Amino acid sequence: SKTAQQAIEVSIVNYLWPSLTVLAFVIFRELKFNVFIILGLLISISGIIFIQTGNGDFSLGRVVDNFHSNPLSYILAFIGAIIWAFYCVLTKKMGKGQNPISIFFLGVALTLWLKLLFSGQVSLPSLDLNTILSLIVASAAIGLGYAAWNIGIIHGNITMLVVASYFTPIISSLLAMLVLQTELSILSLIHIL
C-alpha cells in the first residue's frame, strides 16, 4: 500500500476471508444454507469496515480511487482471501480426517522455487541475532496458528470456528491501536460489540 488509508482498505479486503470461507462451505455443502447466513455476512462485513476505518470515515469513491492508483495490493488481498477460503474447504474435503497440509506446503515451496528460477534474483539481507530470534518466534506463532486452524477445520465445529474467526479483525485492530498508539472511537467500540 502507498498510504495509510490504502493499508486500511487493503486490510478490509483481506478480512473478507471469514465471510468467503462461510460462503465456500455453503457452496461446497459443508454448511447448510439459510437466510441468516446472508444476514450474518452483511453484518460482519459492515462491522469489519467500521472497525478498520476507526472513525467510520468510509467512502466507496475514495476506495475506488485508491484501487486505481494501486490495484495490485487490493487484488492480491482479495486473491489471498479467496485462496484461504478454498484452502479451508479443500482441507476439510481432502483431509478425510487427516491433515493434508504437507500437500499445500509442497505447492508453496514449488511456487517459490519457480519464482526464484524465473526471477534469477537471489539477495539475502544480513541477519543479526534479533532478526533471527524474531523470525523464529513469528514462525512458531504462525505454525501453531495454522496447526490449530487445521485441527479445527478437520475435527471441529466449522460453524463455531468460522464465527470465532470474525474476532480476527477486532484483535488486529486492537493490536494496531496499541502499536500505532492511536485510539478507537466510541463508534468503533460499539461496532466491535
Automatic annotation (TrEMBL):
Signal peptide: none annotated. The keyword Transmembrane helix applies. Keywords: Cell membrane, Membrane, Transmembrane, Transmembrane helix. Its main location: membrane. The keyword Hydrolase does not apply. It comes from Acinetobacter baumannii. This is Aromatic amino acid DMT transporter YddG. It is found in: Cell membrane. It holds the Pfam family EamA. The chain crosses the membrane at residues 12-28, 35-52, 72-90, 102-120, 132-151, 158-180. GO terms for cellular component: plasma membrane. It is a multi-pass membrane protein. Residues 73-192 form the EamA domain.
